[in-house]
């Protein structure tokens, strides 16, 4: 047998970060590429994590007064055409339905038949089709606000795909709201950015920077796009969620008109906001290590696995009985809003192999129980976020398992925040900026840089420099500590109102 | 002002059943047609009912050992071609994606561009794409069984659509399992039919008949299709769920091969099973009445609405305070696995209008609270399933609200069962059969017939008679009381092994 590698994932993060990412997904059995170009299959462990994200977000949406609904998958081509910038943004990556049946072809196979009068676009996002319905539903200010969310699949025909981060089809939620005043619409836009930030912090254990996108990075058709940006372990930025203030751009295009309290006709002020299965990618790249996935407990499909260990049939019965009692005791404990999710893995597999499967899948706690543990009423407990294992009395462990999971959850957040802070820097000169974003080690080009905070005014020369370094302006941060006061643009010397966050990005 | 009609829904069920159905959907604000041909918009109240169905079914699937996953929306055309009967069944109603972008057209609009090498079909069902993945995942009998469910949208390009019952796009779940033996696959097929039957009985409050479809009504490519059939209030049958034993048909087409325990290669035995948003239609047509929707409590987004009634500002504060305390008390009670869902409707609307909105939406309990009720600590309670209202002491009402909801739930099931039984008949002659399915009242042609139980052997002459009467064989029932023993076919006199269920159907 070949010598076991030192880490479960090969290559390591240091060696080849992009390949490490793919190998973690494979080792944790999260997802797989499918025979359909650019589309992935989300496997049960990956989907269960997404379900936990959905449940938490859905609760937060409902607590903030939103309702769910469902709108059509297809958008007539003419609807997209109504908002010029919107169509410009999505026309190059649309799946287009042109026929509504198949017929036998002369070569013995099938061919499309029944051409449609008007092609249909598989929704890349639903502002236009939802707006068309809102136009029907809104007559008076009394019909406003409308605050609806949709859980759905969307399709953007990306040429270069990467699992969870960029796929042709992905799962997401899209909130669409309409309001009588710009103030209310702005309030909604900010509220949902806050919801996303809280979700990232409390569930994903990812600290994020809130900010506003620059004009060039805005959602096509939006007046303003707010975003949350997170730092991955390779120090690149990942946009983890966006909330758009659409002004009256879409309501004019779709005629979402209403009579205000003064009897005058006005267009509604709309917003939209969304997060997607990309968050699974953010979770992987924030917490996974060279042994595989690390799932924050609040998103873990299973919080703990019990591994019965016995060599003889005589030992089997008492060990299994002890494990079953332990499982019931643990399942009666709570973590956050849910009972602790625990299960016994009694498959007929070598102990080492079985243990490693749960390491690679990122189960927060692994509990080994052998005959000697039963005799001493102790458990041999391993935490996924730490290397050591230790023996603990059963009753004390069971009574504190909820706190233990909190501790793991909070520890992951602290670690991610420390990592981000260590690689966030104020930059005062072009040279320092260039140096920050230049790999220092030619053999490990992936991991370098981080978040640069610098005063900045848009200009073509700066754009060229940024393109050269493959760096983008991530956002104008809203936190005053990050934004700083006015100052001279690092690149042009012109007066800038605040600092921007720069990073290489996904 | 025009004289108020006697019923909230016009026309009534007796007057025009199909139009009544559409009007109930409108009055309860469940859904609406969209600008996209054949696709509907599911509005918040309708979607919340679907979410409750999903939650209950999902729990039942997980309790029976299934996991969720997600597979691509698109199916390459060549995948469909592999199973001859399958493609025959779906080729005529497929949305076909042929291009992957839009480009400016000479007339100033847009046109499809970027033709695909191979057209993609928007999934009408996912046996072929899921089977292709299973073929990769299965090598040995140790990899079996695979028991996965998917919640998804599917598209079947129907020409004649009706909201919830038949739409081009609909939401559903599709279970797909693979097993090492036909016995295990059969067990799964029957297990899921049982799950559907229990769900229909315990949540939808709809009694169903379990049975097997005839060859002509089978799922395209299946060896056998089991189904549950329910009777609607117009006495037509609605197929509410199906569970297919696919044998080795799909595993051969897709090469889902495995090595069995004896080291021989074999094809897996597969099943698939599904229910859809059609169940919302079943719920409407089973329980709604001439005043609108009636939602079984276990599926109701809200179990109870509190309606504060006051004429003066002086009364407002004490009434509202009383209502808020009542809301908290009720929310602390439980119904089934969930807390009682209650809310206060304090909108500035005429009391009568507000009350009728909740009647039309089918909220199980309406609780009116006025100043005199506050003084006497009584509530004025209306049940959606009964015409009368009555005054009740608050504490007794709150303490028993869970039982009250159970009573409503059970009452709806009993009523539906009584209705079905009253219109189910054993038929012994062709004349009696013809009479049973012929409208007796030319002005009310919609409501007649029911379920006919008759011995039957398939024959072209009988098919012609059935087509003439617009009657179909719904299933060969599995319940021995319905199936009866062997007997002579009512139509041909030939020996039949059991009776079949006949009905007009949706």
Task: Write up what this structure looks like.
The structure is a homodimer of 506-residue chains. By secondary structure, the first copy, chain A, is of the alpha+beta class. Chain A is built from 16 helices and 27 strands. In chain A, strands 3-7-8-14-11-10-9-24-27-23-22 form an eleven-stranded mixed beta sheet, with helices on both faces. The model of chain A has no long low-confidence stretch (mean pLDDT 95). At the A-B interface, strand 2, helix 2, strand 3, strand 4 and helix 3 of A face strand 2, helix 2, strand 3, strand 4 and helix 3 of B. Strand 5 (96-104) of chain A pairs antiparallel with strand 5 (96-104) of chain B.
